[in-house]
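ok new one. same drill as before - structure tokens go in, u give me an amino acid for every spot. 178 of them this time. try not to just spam alanines like last time pls lmao
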């Protein structure tokens, strides 16, 4: 559903074709999963059906017809409502990392859990280094830096949790059920 709001936000600057919207989406959220062309056009169709965008003309700039879309007043109102709504913190803990750690702790041999936690901590630390380097890379734009900062903050929190969990598991005496 957030793709709809990103497209509405991009259309807030003026009418655009689906092709342009796809590339602008990918530039706006450089560390997110890229948006497929099919998803762009399907989303535009739903937004148009719901009265949030309207067709704003067609052109054929050396290729097939391209339909431009523009945000409607209702679309602006919906976008403003969405942006102003505070995201509630997740009510449940359900990350795959937590699930794997909890399952690893079911093993009677804590050494296996320690090995998994250590390997996961290394993977997180490696990714943290990659993101830190990406922020300093030539040509890194504001969107790149903001996305990297977001990911780094989450990786830092995961690393703190992994360190704490690893220490707790490593301190268990042999044979103590986890």
């Amino acid at each position: 559903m957030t793709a709809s709001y990103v497209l509405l936000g991009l259309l807030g600057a003026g009418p655009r074709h689906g092709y342009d919207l796809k590339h602008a989406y990918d530039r706006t959220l450089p560390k997110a999963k890229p948006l497929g062309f099919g998803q762009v056009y399907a989303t535009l169709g739903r937004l148009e059906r719901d009265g949030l965008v309207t067709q704003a003309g067609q052109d054929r700039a050396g290729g097939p017809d391209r339909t431009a879309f523009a945000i409607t007043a209702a679309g602006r109102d919906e976008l403003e409502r969405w942006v102003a709504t505070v995201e509630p913190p997740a009510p449940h803990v359900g990350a795959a990392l937590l699930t794997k750690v909890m399952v690893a702790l079911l093993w009677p041999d804590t050494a296996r859990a320690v090995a998994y936690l250590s390997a996961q901590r290394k993977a997180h630390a490696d990714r943290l280094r990659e993101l830190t380097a990406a922020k300093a890379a030539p040509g890194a734009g504001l969107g790149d830096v903001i996305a990297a900062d977001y990911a780094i903050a989450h990786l830092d929190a995961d690393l703190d949790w992994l360190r704490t969990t690893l220490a707790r598991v490593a301190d268990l005496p042999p044979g103590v059920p986890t």
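Residues 14 and 106 are 55 Å apart (CA to CA). and btw The longest helix spans residues 142-170.
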